[in-house]
Amino acid sequence: MPRPRWPDRLAVAQTSRARSDALRRRRVVEQAEGMHVRVDGQSLLSFCSNDYLGLATSLDAVAALQEAAARHGLGSGASALVSGHHALHARFEREAAEWMGHERALYFPSGYQANLAVLQALLEPGDLCVQDKLNHACLLDGARLAGAELRRYPHRDYAAALRQLQSLPEAAAVLATDSVFSMDGDVAPLRELALAATGEHALFMVDEAHGVGVLGPEGRGAWAAAGLSARDVPVLVAPLGKAFGGQGALVFGAAPLIEHLLQSARPYVFSTAVAPALAAAMSANLHRLRHDAWRRAKLASLVARFRRGALRHGLPVLDSSTPIQPLLLGSNSLALAVARGLEQRGFWVPAIRPPTVPDGKARLRITLSAAHTEAEVDALLDALAACLEDAGVEA
User: Fold this and answer.
1) Phi and psi dihedrals of 82, rounded to 5?
2) How many CA atoms lie within 13 A of 342 on its CB side?
3) CA torsion sign, 149 to 154 to 156 to 159?
4) Pairwise CA distance, residues 313 & 393, whole Å
5) Which candidate, 362, 316, 349, 357, places its Cα nearest to that of 21?
6) What are the helix and strand counts (H, E) for the chain?
7) What torsion do the CA atoms of 385, 389, 394, 395 make, to the nearest 10 degrees?
8) Are the C-beta atoms of residues 390 and 341 closer than 8 Å to each other?
9) What is the Cα–Cα distance from 28 to 33, expressed in whole angstroms?
10) CB 384 within 8 A of CB 327
11) Exposure string over 3-19, b if 16+ CB within 10 A, otherwise e
12) Are strands 149-153 and 128-132 parallel, antiparallel or unpaired?
């Protein structure tokens, strides 16, 4: 049998995506002023950004970035263990650890990389990693790349998570979950999961990508909102590309754990350190995130307003109290049609389709920000109702 030809394989995959309305393409954002963007020549109001607190355009962060870049240049020049660890990185890690209430923090270039690094460094073949079925891809990939036994429990089913931990009592174990699930917007049962992990002597790991900045005292996340401590959540990951308005991720933990990651996490050891100027910008946004409680209050108010309006219009939104408000439509073609209708009305809400979500679960993933106004939220609700009516969807 002849060896498969790569051009043929790629062509078959592309044709399959096209037939199932699963082709995705990058849009070119030419200009952005808060939630008002210019995309491929068209002015749109964005409801698809994870900039939950409006800090991506923070004047303090921009000024800190510019000043640090002028003084220190752009790139770090090397990995952190060679010569890339700058005083600005060290300051940001110290400030963040104090804020989060963990002993130490480690700064990574991205959230995806941070989760891969943690699980690769902690797990090995023969170990057990128990995860929610709707966890982000990076958590699942991290366990698989480590060669551990990966077992997934039904979404938010903490009793099933406990049974999975008990299924291999002799194995070192990690129980890992998102705090806020990126496609459904609901929150993990963190208190119950923490109890399960403690009872089974498993390491509990929480990814706060969509919870940090939005939930909990001073925006520390869903784990803090649940009343948990650093002892309850010994491994905490806080990506910075959402409410922080920047890029990268922090991993929080006790000193021995962070030191182990620093020495053995391959994605950290072998990656060039984050630009020092970006660390300065993230320090500035950490201050805003901690002390600008009005941003979280406004965001919560807009979420409540959207939920009331969705109920009034009969929109098929999933049950979520977070800024992620999914409008479940089912088929790829319907999600694309509604997204096109919204764009024609001046709103940017791309269709989310497989493989990001399961087959038959295509949706619009509406995300709210403190940078939106009440009038903009109301206008979006009216446009959604009109687009669903045009598509023949009954409320």
Assistant:
1) -100, -80
2) 27
3) negative
4) 12
5) 362
6) 14, 14
7) 10
8) yes
9) 15
10) yes
11) eeeeeeeeeeeeeebee
12) parallel
Distance separating alpha carbons of residues 1 and 9, to the nearest angstrom:
16
Q: Tokens representing 18?
A: 């096209």
For residue 66, what are its two tokens? Answer: 């510019």
Structure-token pair, residue 88: 């600005």
Residue 162 structure tokens: 């406990």
**Count of CB atoms situated within 10 Å of the CB of 354:** 15
Contact at 8 Å (CB) between 130 and 202? yes
Residue 258 near residue 105, CB atoms below 8 Å: yes
- Cα of 117 vs its chain's centroid, Å: 16
Are 302 and 368 spatial neighbours (Cβ–Cβ below 8 Å)?
Answer: yes
- Spell out the per-residue pLDDT of the chain, length 395, in tens: 889 999 999 999 999 999 988 888 898 999 999 999 999 999 999 999 999 999 999 999 999 999 999 999 999 999 999 999 999 999 999 999 999 999 999 999 999 999 999 999 999 999 999 999 999 999 999 999 999 999 999 999 999 999 999 999 999 999 999 999 999 999 999 999 999 999 999 999 999 999 999 999 999 999 999 999 999 999 999 999 999 999 999 999 999 999 999 999 999 999 999 999 999 999 999 999 999 999 999 999 999 999 999 999 999 999 999 999 999 999 999 999 999 999 999 999 999 999 889 999 999 999 999 999 999 999 999 999 999 998 888 76
